[in-house]
UniProtKB/TrEMBL annotation:
<dbReference type="Pfam" id="PF01872">
    <property type="entry name" value="RibD_C"/>
</dbReference>
<dbReference type="GO" id="GO:0008703">
    <property type="term" value="F:5-amino-6-(5-phosphoribosylamino)uracil reductase activity"/>
</dbReference>
<feature type="domain" description="Bacterial bifunctional deaminase-reductase C-terminal">
    <location>
        <begin position="5"/>
        <end position="172"/>
    </location>
</feature>
<protein>
    <submittedName>
        <fullName>Dihydrofolate reductase</fullName>
    </submittedName>
</protein>
<dbReference type="InterPro" id="IPR002734">
    <property type="entry name" value="RibDG_C"/>
</dbReference>
<dbReference type="GO" id="GO:0009231">
    <property type="term" value="P:riboflavin biosynthetic process"/>
</dbReference>
<dbReference type="InterPro" id="IPR024072">
    <property type="entry name" value="DHFR-like_dom_sf"/>
</dbReference>
Length: 206
């Protein structure tokens, strides 16, 4: 059974809209497109590259797919070669033309189609694609959550947990590392069950 990884870059207040560039996503007059660029450093770059080892498929929402399809086929290097080589699966309510080689549109039953990807691939990565991510959260249809949290507050913008989530247990699976510019990588796995509760007075007094 393969794993579905969600890879997200977010501000400290949870905004994950348009980290990559000014024109990436200007919905609701978002003024901070490209906020990640000044905070990238070699540590984050290495973490991203290491996290992609073993990736054998991409799962993307339509907007992120369009951004990637217009950029990566014209680039070189490790990430470009990987993205151009592996299969790309696209979740969309429309019927777009998918011209990037190796691209497939998922059927109308997106949840079922994504579950089936686990039987075909070892490591499927979802990058960005915030609308799709909300579906994955609500269905508990992911195995790893990889967050890079940056030391800025953006206030307005599309957020990682915009629609709330199903109560879930996560486990931190490797030490938290802060980059020189203050980005903190947190890598979690989804566990079974729902969060437990207790009485803190018993903990403090015990």
């Amino acid at each position: 059974m393969g794993l579905i990884h969600i890879d997200l870059f977010t501000s400290l207040d949870g905004v994950a809209q348009a980290p990559g560039g000014p024109e990436e996503d200007t919905d609701d007059s978002f003024a901070f497109g490209g906020w990640q660029a000044p905070l990238i450093d070699d540590v984050v770059g290495g973490q991203i590259a290491e996290g992609m080892e073993g990736m054998d498929a991409l799962l993307l929402g339509r907007r992120t797919y369009d951004i990637f399809a217009s950029y990566w086929p014209h680039q070189s290097g490790f990430i470009a070669e990987l993205f151009n080589r592996i299969p790309k699966y696209v979740a969309s309510r429309l019927d777009p033309d998918l011209e990037w080689a190796g691209s497939t549109l998922l059927g109308p039953d997106v949840v079922t189609a994504i579950r089936e990807l686990r039987g075909r691939h070892e490591n499927v990565h979802v990058i960005g694609s915030l609308d799709l991510v909300q579906t994955l959260f609500s269905e508990k249809l992911f195995d790893r959550l990889n967050l890079w949290v940056y030391p800025i507050l953006l206030g307005r913008g599309k957020k990682v947990f915009a629609d709330g989530v199903v109560p879930s247990n996560l486990r931190l699976i490797e030490p938290v590392i802060a980059s020189p510019k203050g980005a903190v990588m947190q890598r979690y796995e989804l566990l079974e069950g729902t969060p437990r509760t207790g009485d803190m007075t018993e903990v403090v007094e015990g």
